[in-house]
Amino acid sequence: MANISELTFPDDLNYTDEHEWAKPEDDVVIVGISDYAQDQLGDVTFVELPEVDDEFEKGETFGTVESTKTVSDLVMPVGGQVVAINAELGESPGLVNEAPYAGGWMIRLKPDHPADLEDLMSRDVYVELLKGLE
Amino acid sequence: MTEFPGASGLVLNEPLLWDKGKKGRSGFSLPRRDVESAAVDESLLGDALNLPDLSEVDVVRHFTRLSQWNFGVDSGLYPLGSCTMKYNPKINEKLAGLSGFSSAHPLLAETLSQGALELMFKLERLLAEVTCMDAVSLQPAAGAQGELTGMLIIRAWHRKEGSSRSKIIVPDTAHGTNPASAALCGFRPVKARSNEQGILAPETIADIMDEDTAGIMVTNPNTLGLFEENVAQISDIIHSKGGLVYCDGANLNAVMGLVDVRRTGVDVLHLNLHKTFSTPHGGGGPGSGPVCVTEQLAPFLPVPRVIEENSAYVLSEDFPESVGRMQAFYGNFGVMVKAYSYILSLGADLKKVSQLAVLNANYVKEKLKGILHLPFDRPCMHECVFSDKFQTERNVTTLDMAKRLMDYGFHPPTIYFPLVVRGAIMIEPPETESKEELDLFIAALRAIVKEAEEDPDLLRDSPGRSKVRRLDETEAARRPCLGG
Amino acid sequence: MRYLPHTPEDIASMLEVAGEKSLDDLFKTVPDDCRRARGLDLPEPMTEWDLDHHVSDLAEKMAAEPEYKVFLGAGRYEHHIPHAVSYLLGRSEFSTAYTPYQPEISQGTLQAVYEYQTLVSRFLGMEAANASLYDGASALAEAVLMAVRVTRRKKVALSRAINPFFRNVVQTYFRSTDYELVELPYLENGRTDVSEIPGMDDVAAVAVQSPNFFGCIEDLRRVGEGCRQAGSLFVVAFSEPLAYGLFENPGSQGADIVCGEGQSFGIPVSFGGPGLGIFASRMKHIRNMPGRLVGQTVDIDGKRGFVLTLATREQHIRREKATSNICTNNSLCALTAVMYMACVGGTGMRDLARLNYDKCEYLKKELPAAGFKTSFDSPTFNEFVVEFPSDFEATRKRLAEKRIVPGLDLAPYYPELAGRYLLCVTETKTRADMDALVREIVS
Which residues are registered as beta bridge partners of C298? Predict the structure, then answer.
């Protein structure tokens, strides 16, 4: 496991205490897991994603991410409808490890209440949370 | 200079079965044909079979070489926590293979199968005596199926009482089969946290227990190797709110002849014959997971049951409240013969078995506690749990130490379980292990801890002496190749 | 005692290290309210020689081959087991090994199980097989539960011609769920009535057994077509896998899941256990499959090796969300099966299956010739149903004295078939055995 200082947390993203990131882009929100999450998991072997058009509330599980020894739930940072899923993760789940904020994105969703994004943590607050976990 | 069991040596390669052989070879003696070839509907016939043809020599060499790549209890110490890898007596193997048993069909009339029925009946009585429970079913195929049976019994009892409770309390130290079995039975597991002493506190249970909770699943001793000292009180709390107590008896090896399971308030318990009662693990099975219950739950046991009738043994399905069958027939009879033989060989010395198992574990605990971190520094039962806390500063993990142990000639302990201890190393040195073997094991771990400080890369690169080195489990999961 | 190596000196010095004065003191943490009131009331420990006598006595009180000629099948089959197989199973590196969680020192078990998975998949015409479940009955229960997970439908259709013990176990597993079991009847020809299947569009799976409990070969292709129309999974169960050494395998007929009892492949009848739960499916459902899986990979030197894989389906990781609660399986029985299949071989399996078929057909002709009607008109393998007269009980007793067991009375399992018996013939029965059976029944 890497040290917090060795991990990356872009400051233009919002974060959750489930170690996910959310990025608004036009009228959708892109969701993935943070560098800390992928480091804790180890090599990602499989990502179970929902179907397009599926709807979830904030806090609901929308999928799972697996390594050889663990399974973690993926939780909605805000409620909404899934408009796209990253099909590349089927062939290349390792993208989650290599590029958690870019090629490793998981879903794009249309939020029910875009204002909910403001409830999420900024990068600095998230990093403080991580330091508390160490 | 200590000579450890692990050494380098010549290992023979062996290809996959279908990369060997030649069409037309055979390793089988086809019986004499004494009837004509009969007509058959050609449209139903299948194509030629895509299986290799091998000679008997091919087959024997193949599997002999494969066996030489394996470690077994007969090779050396397997200090796997909660697995009780004790020695498997050889006379028991002979007895299970006696032709009267091995050729016997389960659907013979009872008059023609009195030997097997008597053995099963008597084994049930012996297990009842050891546990102090009232009635036993030998039918479940393994511990997990025993747990499912227990859950079904609890559910059936509640239904009879007119309630349909949906929850069951499962401690945070529980083995994964516990919540999985509960879920299979439609119960929702509710987690109970163990306290700083590593055991369950009555207050914790009292807070969780309610009228919608069917009961609790305890493991006693628990997976930290500690006796659940508050179990009797906890059982009272559960019972007072109309619940039942299930006990996972995987760790019974610590308490035979000492603990009265029924007195601890347990209503239903499963046993693992392939742990406590010496039947071999077989590389993953077959096992046997009998359930033992109190008198009030006996009507719910699986059928058929062996009963005595007119001084003979018969199989009866006349139990209308039974949860049904768990397997097609009566359980893993071949395994039962071995457990029966084991119990008869030990008799009341089963108490000594537990005493020596607990002695072994406490001895190892005291010898290792300076060099490995011991999260619960208290008397343990038949197993003890360490962690890699001292080693993580050098970035050496439990996994690295476990892999290096193989080079020293020992199977690693259970690692990363129970989940409540980070980097857990669960060591169970069964009573069949001598002091010399344990001293060698302790010396090996001492050497490895030293290597962790002086040459950590050596650990990260281990094992170095086995047939294969660390395997790419990520690729195996990303691109599963499950057959050739 | 020869399994307890501790000498009094060992015990004394170990107690000292443990910081206790006596063995009893080791149990300080066990409160009084948990203790036994009295010691273990067990017989005196037996010597190895007395134990041998005692258990051998019990074994002698059994009607077994070769003294008895037992024409019973119904889920457990008498087959010749090559001695090479029994011998190889005596290698304690196989029998005393643990589950191969540490793959570097378990390559023997892992490669053997990978070979088992491969041969079983090929034999059944499927894409992937697991490392074993307990027996055919629980394998069927797991199969229909898997179909429920995959399709999210809550109803399962089971043929009445499936082994009644298998169906009983499925009922047990289903009792605590809100899933529904419906029964498909069988026809006069002994095969399942498949006419309703295409319309069953709320069913997760349709399960038939082939050869079925009556020994009849089912029309698998038609069942498969019906399932496709209904959008349900096609589950094929079996209790006698040797049939596929001769007849079309379920995979070739469109099965989605194949499950059954593998005891015929080298495992002794052994009064009903242990058995071998064989389980195979299509690769696309692999993440929903219960049980362990062995996969091929490479080590850090690039050498081929094998590991347990896709473990995230299993209980030790997914706990209450696991595909099954199974942990210990029937690994050594799977090893037995692959050794048996290796000995018999592809060519040999066909010859052996053919021999079984021909022998059974012989008896199936001799009994009608002696005046006893066979019941079902379909092709059969190793087993068939025959009608015996209403006073057959007396004949049965007489035959028992002659050490012959003439099949299974079906009345307890199929009241509508009272007076019918299920007979089984494998390669272990000679023509003389069968002639004796007929002669004794007639006389």
Answer: C304
Domain that holds residue A99: 4-133
CATH of the domain at A60: 2.40.50.100
CB-CB under 8 Å, B106 with C269? yes
* CATH of residue C372: 3.90.1150.10
Last residue of a domain, one of C340, C369, C399: C340
Most A CBs within 10 A among C286, C309, C316, C317, hence the mutation to make, goes to C317
- The b/e string for C302-311 (b: 16+ C-beta within 10 A; e otherwise) is eeebbbbbbb
Residues 6+ apart with CB under 8 A from B261: B131, B132, B133, B247, B249, B269, B292
Q: Do A94 and B478 touch (CB under 8 A)?
A: yes
Domains along the sequence of chain B with CATH: 92-348 (3.40.640.10), 350-475 (3.90.1150.10)
- DSSP annotation string for C415-426: GGGTTEEEEE--
The reply to whether C240 and C230 lie within a common domain is yes
Asked whether the beta carbons of residue A45 and residue B478 sit closer than 8 angstroms, the reply is yes
CA neighbor of B324 nearest in space, from B185, B164, B122: B185
CB contact under 8 A, B478 and A69: no
Please check whether residue B386 is in contact with residue B427, taking contact to mean a CB–CB distance below 8 angstroms.
Answer: yes
Mean pLDDT estimate for chain C: 96
Sign of CA dihedral C258, B63, C349, C86: negative
Angle at C272 between CA C269 and CA C273, to 5 degrees: 90
Q: What pLDDT does residue A39 have? A: 94
Q: For A21-37, what is the mean pLDDT?
A: 95
Contact call for B72 and C177, based on CB within 8 A: no
Q: Do A69 and C318 touch (CB under 8 A)?
A: no
Q: What is the ipTM of this complex?
A: 0.97
pLDDT tops 80 at residue A102: yes
Name all chains with 3 or more CB-CB pairs below 8 Å to chain B: A, C
Q: What is the pLDDT of residue C66?
A: 86
Instruction: Tell whether pTM > 0.90.
Output: yes
User: Above 80 in pLDDT, residue B272?
Assistant: yes
Q: Is the dihedral of CA C35, C39, C43, C47 positive or negative?
A: positive
Q: Helices B56-67 and C107-124 sit at what angle, rounded to 10 degrees?
A: 140
Q: What is the C-alpha separation between B443 and A44, in angstroms, rounded?
A: 37
User: What is chain B's mean pLDDT, rounded?
Assistant: 96
pLDDT at C146: 97
pLDDT beyond 90 at C133: yes
Rounded to a whole number, what is the distance in Å from the CA of C310 to chain A's nearest CA? 7
What's the average model confidence in pLDDT over B91-95? 98
Q: Are residues C396 and C316 in the same domain?
A: no
> Do C396 and C278 share a structural domain?
no
Distance of residue B420 Cα from the nearest chain A Cα, in angstroms? 15
Q: Per the structure block, which two tokens stand in for B104?
A: 């016997």
A69 vs C287, C317, C321: nearest CB = C317
Residue B298: how many other CB atoms lie within 10 Å: 19
pLDDT at site C139: 98
CA C375 centroid distance within chain: 26
Confidence of residue C325 (pLDDT cuts 50, 70, 90): confident
For residue C141, name the pLDDT band (cuts at 50, 70, 90): very high
* Encoded amino acid at C168, one letter: N
pLDDT at C315 exceeding the cut of 90? no
- Give the SS3 label for residue C404: strand
- A 10 A CB-CB count for B225 gives 28
Chain B hits for A46, Cβ within 8 Å: 477-478
Nearest in space to C42 (alpha carbons), one of B454, B324, B347, B221: B347
Instruction: Kindly report the nearest CA distance between residue B477 and chain A, in angstroms.
Output: 6
